[in-house]
Specification:
Helix content is about 50%, strand content about 15%. The chain is α/β, with parallel strands linked by helices. Among the domains are: about 15-75, 2-Layer Sandwich (Alpha-Beta Plaits), CATH 3.30.70.20; about 80-185 and about 220-245, no CATH class; about 245-325, Alpha-Beta Plaits, CATH 3.30.70. The strands form six sheets. A four-stranded parallel sheet has the order 6-5-7-8. A hairpin with a 6-residue loop joins strand 14 (about 325-330) and strand 15. Helix 6 (about 120-125) packs parallel to helix 10 (about 225-240), helix 13 packs antiparallel against helix 14 (about 425-435) and helix 13 (about 345-425) packs parallel to helix 15 (about 440-455).
């Protein structure tokens, strides 16, 4: 096989680093403080992650799996190689699996960068197949507080999942170098060939699962929680009294009315709302898909989900957790709270309120426009009346000034006639007593002028 062919096959068959599903990241949901757990716990966090949900370069990645176990929302998907490496110990012939970190001086069957790199789902899957011995001898001297806190978190979750009695029966915590030492079971020739054949079949199955195009769209690739679900289903089918496992699921209250916000917020598709024939709606959760991220709790605005509650399940398949009766909105038909007074949803109420305000604003604007037009018309009428009054006054002045001008024009002959009349007193008296218009004195004066020489 040539170099390029080998490289192409390695790229096809191997994925040397985890993958990030950004749609499921906690930082894309409403929160007060951003999550940086994957970046903080990674030994090369500054070189790999530019932001917690955005990768700059995967080259420094050693595929330790710390970011996978630390991710609170399950958005970091492990590579198929990592899944095969972490779960392959379940196919061995030994009844016990010894797990330790690289700093341990003991001999263990599984050696990882840190025990906390194994997710609690992986440890639970291995514990359902074999007994587990956890080598914790280097943990007391470890300076990485984040890994220690993550390990305590994983062990606490395992106790909740199995219960205290079963956890103590399946797990052994070795704090001293001489506790639960590693030993290899001697195999006969037949057992050896059976083991090789079984390992070959298991390896071929894993390789086929890694080929592109053979994954189920619903499964989204091989996942630790899916393997755990398959194992619990097998145990339930083979046991008369199935075991019960503790799993944290959303705790729905009576305030839930099936609005569907939690279903939209769940990026993993673990939560579904189903309408029943009797008019009720039930909420179904698939536990193995649920990462216990509590995004659905944060998305509920009606306090219909009261945190996460530990439930005892026989398998991790779909389970119904709540039933409710929907009350639909009169306007749009969406679910609303049963105690709604007006019978409409919040969106329709806001729309009606906005429409009412718009109508009031339009009526107010129309009223102001009419007032402005009436005021403008009154001003124009007043202006027209003022102009008409000014014209009438001017006309009256002109009319009053016309007789004065006429009287002024006739005063000059009258003055001349007065002089003449003064010379002839006998004719002045009839002129003064005459009630004829002003033209009469002029005529009299004109008649008296020729007579003046005779009097001289």
């Amino acid at each position: 096989m040539g170099f390029f062919t080998r490289t192409a096959m390695d790229m096809l068959m191997k994925t040397t680093h985890p993958e990030i599903n950004r749609r499921q990241c906690w930082n894309l949901h409403p929160h007060r403080k951003p999550c940086t757990e994957c970046k903080d716990i990674c030994p090369y966090g500054e070189q790999i992650f530019t932001r917690p949900n955005l990768v700059k370069d995967w080259d420094p990645c050693t595929e330790c799996g710390l970011c996978v176990s630390a991710c609170r929302s399950g958005c970091i998907i492990p590579s198929p190689e990592q899944v095969q490496r972490d779960t392959s110990a379940a196919d061995t012939d030994n009844d016990t699996i010894w797990i330790g970190c690289e700093k341990s001086t003991r001999k263990n069957s599984m050696v990882r960068t840190c025990i906390s790199a194994l997710t609690w789902e992986t440890l639970a899957y291995l514990a359902l197949n074999k007994k587990i011995v956890l080598d914790l001898t280097p943990c007391g001297e470890c300076e990485n507080d984040l890994c220690a806190a993550q390990l305590r978190k994983e062990l606490t979750r395992l106790v909740d999942f199995f219960g205290q009695p079963m956890f103590e029966a399946r797990f052994t915590l070795a704090y001293e170098p001489d506790e639960a030492l590693y030993h290899v079971k001697e195999l006969s020739r037949r057992e050896m060939f059976e083991q090789v054949s079984h390992g070959s079949k298991s390896g071929t199955k894993k390789l086929l699962q890694m080929l592109p195009g053979l994954h189920s769209e619903d499964d989204g690739g091989v996942d630790f929680r899916l393997l755990l679900h398959q194992r619990t289903k097998q145990l339930k089918a083979s046991m008369e009294t199935p075991l019960k496992y503790g799993y944290y699921l959303p705790n729905f209250t009576d305030k839930c009315f099936g609005c569907g916000k939690c279903e939209k917020a769940c990026r993993a598709g673990a939560l579904k709302l189903e309408d029943l024939p009797d008019g009720q709606t039930r909420i179904v959760i698939t536990p193995w898909k649920c990462s216990e991220c509590e995004v659905c709790v944060a998305s509920c605005s009606n306090h219909g989900i009261d945190g996460m509650k530990l439930r005892q399940l026989t398998t991790l398949g779909p389970v119904s957790v709540h039933k409710c009766t929907k009350t639909l909105c009169k306007e749009c038909g969406k679910p609303i709270a049963p105690g709604s007074v007006d019978g409409v949803c919040t969106v329709c109420r806001i729309k009606a309120r906005t429409k009412k305000r718009q109508e009031e604003a339009a009526a107010r604007a129309k009223q102001l426009r009419e007032e402005r037009e009436a005021k403008k018309a009154a001003e124009e009428a007043a202006k027209a009346a003022a102009e008409a009054g000014a014209d009438a006054a001017e006309t009256a002045v002109q009319m009053a000034a016309a007789p004065a001008e006429t009287a002024a024009a006739g005063s000059v002959p009258a003055a001349a006639g007065s002089v003449i009349t003064a010379l002839t007193p006998e004719k002045a008296v009839p002129a003064a007593l005459d009630e004829t218009p002003a033209a009469a004195p002029e005529n009299t004066a004109e008649k008296d002028v020729p007579d003046t020489p005779k009097n001289d």
